[in-house]
Design brief:
about 260 residues; mainly alpha; Helix Hairpins; 13 helices; about 0% strand
Length: about 260
């Protein structure tokens, strides 16, 4: 039977990999060099969940845990914090933010739980200015998600998003400006107007209560399916899109 390892043994394995007798690659890693690895591992967890693949989910969660422990061991080597401190701090947070479980507070719904969580979080962080509130949303988030969070936070701070009709008008106006900038070859204005169109599309998604990230993912998947199921079989497996004209491509796509 394969050996079952404990959490402490796993941490010791990472410490060994980071030691002078360990792995050259692992020894070279820093918080900065591991950033992309952490992002990719998180997305692979999401992929396993979306695929309902529990075996793969178990493996991918292990890879995320590896990243957490690796960062903690690096910090430990630099005498910043340890994995024990990471666990202790998040444990304290969970107890502190769940007074309805670990204290005497009574709640009647999930909404009350979330409101109470945000209230406790706000008290922990102290009074923030609007600028600090907006700046607290991580810049490293995917642009669509960050834009939605920023606009939601602005609403919490008193901004009126307006109506979907107003959002449509803003989109149309920015599309018009984008078209003009393209025609005039004004590249900086093209960049600016394109971003404005995207921002207002996110605003519209909030007004329509649509998750923009999920909607775009769905549209991308439909594009992939269309490409594979319609275009590729019709041009033949030994052909490629370069072998046909743009008009022929358009006819295939719309057929």
């Amino acid at each position: 039977m394969d050996k079952t390892y404990s959490f402490d043994e796993f941490v010791d394995i990472i410490r060994k990999l980071r030691s002078k007798d360990g792995c050259p690659w692992d020894r070279e890693q820093t918080h900065e060099s591991l950033k992309q690895c952490l992002i990719e591992e998180c997305y692979e967890v999401l992929e396993a969940i979306n695929n309902k693949d529990t075996n793969n989910l178990c493996e991918e969660l292990g890879d995320v845990l590896l990243q957490v422990v690796m960062h903690s061991v690096i910090a430990e080597e630099n005498e910043k914090f340890t994995i024990e401190e990471v666990i202790s701090e998040v444990s304290k947070k969970m107890i502190r933010r769940h007074p309805h479980v670990f204290g005497d507070l009574e709640v009647k719904s999930t909404e009350e739980v979330l409101d109470n969580w945000e209230d406790i979080k706000s008290k922990e962080k102290g009074t923030y200015s609007p600028e600090q509130e907006l700046d607290s949303i991580p810049k490293a988030l995917p642009a669509n998600i960050r834009s939605a969070k920023i606009q939601k936070k602005a609403v919490d701070l008193g901004l009126e998003l307006g109506s979907s009709d107003m959002a449509f008008n803003d989109i149309y106006e920015n599309l018009k400006g984008l078209r003009e900038a393209i025609d005039l070859g004004e590249n900086l204005r093209v960049f600016d107007k394109f971003g404005s169109v995207m921002l207002n599309m996110i605003k519209l998604s909030l007004l329509l209560q649509i998750n923009a990230e999920n909607s775009l993912t769905n549209a991308t998947n439909k594009f992939i399916n269309r490409f594979i199921d319609v275009i590729d079989p019709r041009i033949g497996k030994d052909s490629n899109l370069y072998a046909i004209t743009s008009t022929e491509q358009e006819n295939l796509w719309r057929s």
